[in-house]
Amino acid sequence: MENLNQEEQKFTKALRRGLRKFNQILKEKGTITGEDAFLLFTSFGFPLEITTELASEKGMTINIEDFKREFEHHRNLSRKATAGTFQSGLADHTERTTRLHTATHLLQQALREVLGDHVQQKGSNITPKRTRFDFSHSKKLSKEELQKVEEIVKQKITEGLSVNKEIMTPQEAHEQGALGFFEDRYQSKVSVYSVGSFSKEICTGPHVKNTEEIGRFKLQKQKNIGVGIMRIWATIE
Question: If you average pLDDT over each of 41-45, 113-117, 177-181, which comes out highest?
């Protein structure tokens, strides 16, 4: 009964957050698109039926075809990830994106050191301009926590840690302490990237050879995007 009450409370909280986001989008854009409905559904667990009903009350109609298109796009990305063809959330394999990719590994480990081992990657998107990293955490980081995370990443860059790749089974990787949170995507053999003795992750690459190549790291902003999920942006110079 207690577990049921907890689930009900989580669902109610998610609905409230979704409703706030709905109103925010409506205020900023004056309308709710099919893409917005998909965002509410995936990031806030806000049912499409409720979004449609709320939009109807405002005299608007949700474009269901746009919603379905976004849903199919999301499903295709998941299929590619499972097949191992969607490379670690990277938009491309340019030199700058590669540097940001290695910086993201440092970022995740720094977050775990500052916030705790409950921090787990929930998604990432890395372009030549910035890295966007989603992770499990219940609230925004304080100014002090953000500063500490950034300091740790900068320190590891300055230390000039070598980045090494090994091939092993997922079980061997976990036994060696490698992070990996997408079990359903792993093949019989995986690539494990170690950044000195600081970070070790199952990853498809690519990465720099030494952290000195990354450059000047800077956290940009953070956002709570769902129940227990934070998003953080960073860049390099």
Answer: 113-117
pLDDT tens for 201-210 read: 999 889 999 9
pTM, entire model: 0.65
3-state SS of 22-90 is HHHHHHHHCCCCHHHHHHHHHHHCCCHHHHHHHHHHCCCCCCHHHHHHHHHHHHHHHHHHHHCCCCCCE
CATH classification of the domain holding 197:
3.30.980.10
| Whether 215 and 142 share a structural domain | yes
116 and 71, same structural domain?
no
Given 52, 83, 114, which residue is the final one in a domain? 83
Q: Which domain holds residue 229?
A: 95-236
